[in-house]
Amino acid sequence: MIRPNYYIQPRRNLAINLSKTKSEILAEFHSSTRSNVKKAKRKDVTAEIKKEMSPNDWDEFFKMAGETIARNAGKNIYPGRAYFETMLKTVPYIDDAKNGELSLGFFCGRHEGRLAAMNLVLFFGRTATYLFGGSYTAELSSKVTTYLHWRGMEEAKERGYIYYDLGGIDEKLWPSLTVFKRRFKGEEFEYLGNIDVVLNSLGYRVYNIIRKIRKSG
């Protein structure tokens, strides 16, 4: 059996079952997560799904991504702007598609009217999947990031989706993010994911050296 050198994506994801009532879902959260949802409401945190993303919205998103990267020891998990532009050309916004069809939702969180965080969620089949998010460091005390996921779950449930997938978890690569996601107390599952199977060891080492140089640049 050929085994991969390493996995491109985390092998485990964490998803929330939305078939229960909202009260039951909220009750299963870790106590600190429940508290943060309530705290966000008291701190005048709101959330909306944008009908479309303007160039200015994307500028804000990438500023948030930059601050998020800085908070995570410089680890960059974000693709470039061209990736998102291509996605928008091929995947419709959620209100332009039928429930269950492949579509995108852009959740924007505001604190006292200020844009504070953004999440990109992919809807397909029975599942709403969190793909990317970013937030301003100065707004984290408002608990907007927790609230934005809760609103994503509410919206997905109202539209008839059964799961809200919080995405990958990995204790070594993303320790703090993994702790944050696990406090929503979802179901963890493992899948094969995307892997590199190396057939040319020398060529692959050269490829990885170039890849690291480009990332550091």
From TrEMBL:
Keywords: Acyltransferase, Cell shape, Cell wall biogenesis/degradation, Peptidoglycan synthesis, Transferase. It comes from the Bacteria. The keyword Thylakoid does not apply. One of its GO terms (biological process) is cell wall organization. PROSITE patterns: FEMABX. GO terms for molecular function: aminoacyltransferase activity. Belongs to the FemABX family. This is Peptidoglycan bridge formation glycyltransferase FemA/FemB family protein. It comes from Candidatus Sungiibacteriota bacterium.
